[in-house]
Amino acid sequence: MSLGLDGGEVPQMLVQAAFAAGAVPDDADPEEFVSAPENNHGKSQEEIIEDGIKQMIERDEEGDFTAAGTPDRRKLAKVIGGPVTAAELDAAWKKLNEPV
Which range marks the domain in which residue 15 is found? Predict the structure, then answer.
């Protein structure tokens, strides 16, 4: 990972901080790095997960859903920018599929 206009290498002890600040490795596609939505203030984890699932449905990317038709938990974690437990995914998925 390079730092600054001169392309100097990021010291190993600062790599994690660089990632947290939004840095992307030189050899990576910046499109692969998805950050959490900025409007999550005041939302519960369940609401954030539901919003992430809705984004996955709308973007309709290959691999976002398993063969069983449920959201891929790893892909969802990238969409929302944080970890998702199986129980959280299951609860949000059930809620989104409830008849209105």
Answer: 1-28
